């Protein structure tokens, strides 16, 4: 008989009456007055195993079992007693009556419960092997695998082939710093670890590999940022004889398919599109965060003839522009918060922050609170 016949989490009522062999870790052990219940866990989920005193050798072994022991169980699948099912588990309608219990590996008492959500990063990384057993981490790695597989299937169906390029390569004068690997054979010489497969892209395009891709490791010896790690994985696609719209349509389709097949999320079809000029005009950024609903209100024309040179100077400058941000509910913002924003914008080089609080729009100028209103004419 094979060591394992089924995964714990996939043991369902379809196997009723059958003998199964399961391997996994003890998620929880419960002693209910002479009957011992073990929740056995593997990568597919949990199954409830029942050890009763009628089988003395099995029961004796079960008494010594604790959390995170690695076990092999052989037993018969049966229905759970009425009213004891667990709708949250695929195996929630059944349990396994244990006939044989083998401890493959005992465990010391774990430093934390695997379903504890309040763990520090230090604790998790110190006990990384336990951290990786947690459902969240298992799901993360499985999701990454699914994304990779969906990308490969999509690109394959669109005529892309997977080509591997060297990791040890010549350093090229790009923007980021390379990690260097010393050569034993050529003393004083170094290979560079690639920031990307940049060096080989044109080589392969000109050689008539008109569609290729890699899911590849890239290395950059840079300071850490939110979007930058020393090593990361990149989906790198290269293609010839396609125009910009064709390329955008192709990869929009890929992203839409990946989200649907991995997370069952329907992304819009087509994606919203904004050209560079509109993005800069409304948001002052070529990558605006569309979750932030604030857009610029253009004030250039009304500020051309005001006495306040900070505004009129910019409004009359060639290519100059004066804009404002309208903050809904901003009238309730205390002065201390506005002053804090003034310090915040200084980080980005702004020399100040002009504001106008609208306390009562019906009162016109008298309903406004601001240090700059006195410098603006009524039309402004």
Secondary-structure blueprint:
Layout: E1 19-32, E2 35-42, E3 45-51, H1 56-64, E4 70-79, E5 94-105, H2 121-126, H3 128-131, H4 135-157, E6 161-162, E7 179-182, E8 190-193, H5 198-206, E9 211-219, E10 231-239, H6 244-263, H7 276-283, E11 296-298, H8 309-316, E12 323-325, H9 335-346, E13 357-358, E14 368-369
Parallel strand pairs: 3-5, 6-9
Antiparallel strand pairs: 1-2, 1-4, 2-3, 4-5, 7-8, 9-10, 11-12, 13-14
Helix pairs in contact: 4-6
Rg, rounded, reads: 32 Å
Q: What is the helix fraction of residues, given as a range?
A: 25-40%
Strand order of the largest sheet: 1-2-3-5-4
Measured between the Cα atoms of the first and last residue, the distance is 87 Å
How many E-type strands? 14
The helix/strand order is EEEHEEHHHEEEHEEHHEHEHEE
- Runs in which pLDDT lies below 50 for 5 or more consecutive residues are none
Question: How large a portion of the residues is in β-strands, by DSSP E?
Answer: 15-25%
Number of helical regions: 9
Instruction: Provide the residue-averaged pLDDT.
Output: 90
Would you tell me the structural class of the helices and strands?
alpha+beta
Q: Report on the biggest sheet.
A: 5 strands, mixed, barrel
How would you describe the shape? extended
